[in-house]
Structures are given as C-alpha cells and as structure tokens.
Please model this.
Amino acid sequence: MKPIPKAVISRLPLYVRHLEDLAAEGVRTVSSGAIARSLGLTDAQVRRDLATFGTFGRPGIGYPVAELGDALRAILGLDRTWQVALVGYGNLGRALLAYGGFPRKAFRIVAVFDTDPAKIGRKAGDLVVEDGRSLAGRVRRLHVPMAILAVPAAAAQEAAWQLVRAGVRGILNFAPVRLEVPDPVVVDNIDFAVSLKQLSFHVRARGGEKMHGSEPRP
Amino acid sequence: MKPIPKAVISRLPLYVRHLEDLAAEGVRTVSSGAIARSLGLTDAQVRRDLATFGTFGRPGIGYPVAELGDALRAILGLDRTWQVALVGYGNLGRALLAYGGFPRKAFRIVAVFDTDPAKIGRKAGDLVVEDGRSLAGRVRRLHVPMAILAVPAAAAQEAAWQLVRAGVRGILNFAPVRLEVPDPVVVDNIDFAVSLKQLSFHVRARGGEKMHGSEPRP
Model:
C-alpha cells in the first residue's frame, strides 16, 4: 500500500465515526455526497479519500456502510484492543478516564499513575492509582503500547522517557511542552492553546470581532 | 489578503509559540531551516508558509524573531485579549481553568458556568461558578465572543444554542458530539478519541504493534 497522506489519516476517524452512526441508524448504503454533506467536505474529496483504500463504492448504489466501516477501522488499527496507560491523575486525568467519547472496544485504560502520595492507592474508576515511580516497570510488564500523558509541563519529558524505556510506542501528550522521543515513537500533542488560537483566527476572519468585541458596547 | 489555506492556519500557532520561545532565549534572527528543524517541517514549507503573510525573511540574515512573531500574533488575533466563557466545571472544566498552556494575555476566562447546584457559588480560581441557567443572559451582558464547552455530550447542543443566542461567535467544543450552529459561528472540536485513533494508526504503521502488542509475550 502506498503511504497515506497525513490529511487523509486525520479525516479517517471522522469517516469511521460517521459510518458507525449510520450503521446504528440501520443505514446500509450511503453516497459520497451524503457523507460529504454530513462531514462538511466536498463530494470529490470524499471519493478521493476513500479511493485511497480500495474500491468500495458502487456506481448508483453507493458505499456499503458496514463493509467500509470495517475496512477503515482495520486501517486505523481499531480491529484490536489497544491497552493504554494513563499517566497523571489530576483533573485532566480524571476527565480523560471518565471521558465518554473513547470507543471502549478499541482503547482500554489498563493502568493509572500519579506521583502524589495522596492519590496513590486510591480508586480511579475500576482501577487503583499506582505509584508513578513504578511507571517504567509496570508499563513494561503490562506490555502497554500507548500512553496518555496528563502531567504538568515540568514533569512531562521525564515521564515520556520512562514510557519510551518501558516500550511504549505512541504517546498522546496533553502537557504544553514539545517532547523529545526517539524513533519510532510517535507523539501526538493536544494543545488547547493552539486550538483556541485557531478559533480566534476564524472568529476574527468571519467578522466576529466586530460583531462582538471584548469592549462593552455603549 | 488572499484566503489563507487551512493547513497554514493550523501551523500558525506553532510558529508563534516557537518564535516566542526564541525571543525568550534572546534570539534575534532565525533561518527558515532552523525553524523547520525545530517544528519537524521542511525548509521549503516554512518559507512558503511565511511568504503567505508578506516578505519577512532577508537573504543571508533570516527572519527577525520579534517582528515576525508580532505579525503572526496579529494575524491570529492575539494582539488583543479574547474574553472566554467556560461552560461546564467538571474535571475537564477544572483542568482547563488551571491549564498552564493558555497565553494569559490573549485569552482570559471571565466566567464559569455549571448547572450542578453543588458547584454553583463555589470558587473557581479567581472566579465563582455561576448558574448555567443564567448562561445566555450573563454571556450577552459580558459581550464574550468565545466559549469553551466542557459539558457532558447530552448537554452540549443546548448549551451551544444558548451561547449562540448570547452572541458567542467561536466555540471550542470538548463534548464528543457534532454541534449544529448557524453561520458565522465557528466550532472547533477537540475529540480525544480521534487523536487516539490517529495515534494507533501511526503506531501500527511504524511497526509498534509487532514490537509491543496487547497480548503478553510468552
């Protein structure tokens, strides 16, 4: 298979979620145009994206919802269960453990770590918060391939090194720092500030600033 | 100015942050190659991106760090303070209010709302949690142009309608639902599941699965 463009990969989860929604509604086939409208894309883009993965669509019939969903899930690695370690059990860690949006079958948080003595040993959902000092050993024994990093910025790089040494290959990083990791470890940064900045750009570009500035109107 | 491609906009905050880091280190000029290496981009891409906004680079000298940073901040709308309402004060809301990564000068959370009677009236940083039922009126009086939505999925759409009615033009949505909003309101979704799915794709693509699968090795 040819390398898949990054932009296409970034849209894949959206297709999967939409196809799952359609399947749940009992829809069996869907046109590229209908997918495009639902996801705010163009018809041509949807057809081009999906053609990257093989010939799914049938002229006049559309895409088979279940088959296409399964194929995209497999491409994303969602046909297996990924065990995930959660590092950091502050407010963000708690929110992530309780987050209703993770597909439970695909991702399972199997261990939670924190270095705060007041948290260690306490319940965290069905788990118990483990001592962050035992992070590397525990993650290695559990053979966890992915981790979510929800620690303060100052603690993130050290935690990342420990995860990498323990064999973790993918890190979802919420700390507002740029992590250094060796190949082939992948880091995906969720940076709330970047999102806010993009949003402020769009609000300004659409005239939102003039409509509703930060100074009270007379 | 021509419309700026979405991909360029998504990289703008990264440039700004990097330029701010450089300025803090006392760096006065920087080459496109050095920026590219720091951000994991190609030299050509950096030069193309920055050329979108005007002629900043000088051959043999590089980009003026402070001047370029100011220009990009202005383009992003970061040369003013955006007042932001935080809707939902659960674990995620708490984490966002305490988040160290927001540039304080550009974004200021000026009101926090929740519908839980146990939370209303309690302190939230320097603020006090306000009754979610007064959301629309308060946001309108405060003339807040942006909001962060950190409520459960089931409550998100109703909260979004109230925000829109109150004049909010940009919503950073953390609830795992697709919000319907009228033009010209902009929604930016932060979907943790999408990020995990992209990460699992990359881990699999780089052979991480074979190196460290979910089944314990013998």
